[in-house]
Write a structure and sequence with these properties.
The protein is an all-alpha fold. It is built from ten helices and no strands. It folds into two domains: 45 residues, Orthogonal Bundle (Arc Repressor Mutant, subunit A), CATH 1.10.10; 132 residues, Orthogonal Bundle (Tetracycline Repressor, domain 2), CATH 1.10.357. Keywords: DNA-binding.
Length: 218
């Protein structure tokens, strides 16, 4: 089973936990030592503080090392390069979102009807990504990889499951892709910042799209 494909429980809920953004296989890798986990968390905390102060575009490995009071080599060994650091930060934020829609309170999480969870999903994703927009834009993968990132696969599978639970009279896989496309981070950022769309307007558009795509057979 791939990292981006969740297991499905008897009630149709996704059972897989959050997936990482990194596409590198970790099969056979040793479990990280406790001190390595703590050091990684310390570096990510330092990077998050710096990013809040100066923005993702100005985040450097040297600055993270100074903030965390470690040698620059430690940062490079842990993350490889600046892009690896950004991906690690993005993974942390993405897992927070995944926890919310996989196991958080309803209506976004389990316990609400599928149609209500669909209605809650879009606004939650848009707000999450706008709150972290510099990070998402800075770590945006190249075009040829954008649609195969495991975290996107988990979102798509989650939407497919919810659409099936609504007994939508449509091609649910294509409908899930259509819904995901409307949540594209650069698009939402463009609509809000360059076009002046309000979040209320985007929320209304999402609700209309869900209503159309999740319409069951009469």
């Amino acid at each position: 089973m791939s990292a981006g494909t969740p297991r499905i429980g008897p009630t149709g809920d996704t059972l897989a936990g959050p997936v990482e953004l990194d596409l590198t296989s970790v099969d056979g890798a040793r479990r990280p030592r406790a001190d390595a986990v703590r050091n990684r968390a310390k570096l990510l905390d330092a990077a998050a503080r710096l990013m809040a102060d100066c923005g993702a575009a100005n985040l450097t490995m040297d600055a993270v090392a100074a903030e965390a009071e470690v040698g620059k080599g430690t940062v490079f060994r842990r993350f490889g390069d600046r892009n690896g650091l950004l991906l690690a930060l993005l993974d942390h934020e993405e897992q927070r979102l995944q926890q919310a829609f996989l196991s958080g309170p309803p209506p976004l999480g389990p316990g609400a009807p599928a149609i209500e969870r669909l209605r809650a999903f879009g606004p939650a994703v848009m707000r999450h990504e706008l709150d972290n927009v510099e990070l998402y834009l800075a770590a945006e993968p190249p075009a040829e990889r954008r649609c195969v990132v495991p975290a996107r696969g988990l979102r798509r599978s989650h939407l497919v499951i919810l659409l099936r639970m609504t007994e939508a009279a449509t091609d649910v896989e294509l409908a899930a892709e259509t819904l995901l496309a409307s949540l594209d981070t650069p698009l939402v950022h463009h609509l809000v910042e360059q076009r002046g769309f309000s979040l209320d307007r985007l929320d209304s558009g999402w609700q209309d799209l869900v209503t159309r795509l999740a319409k069951p057979l009469p």
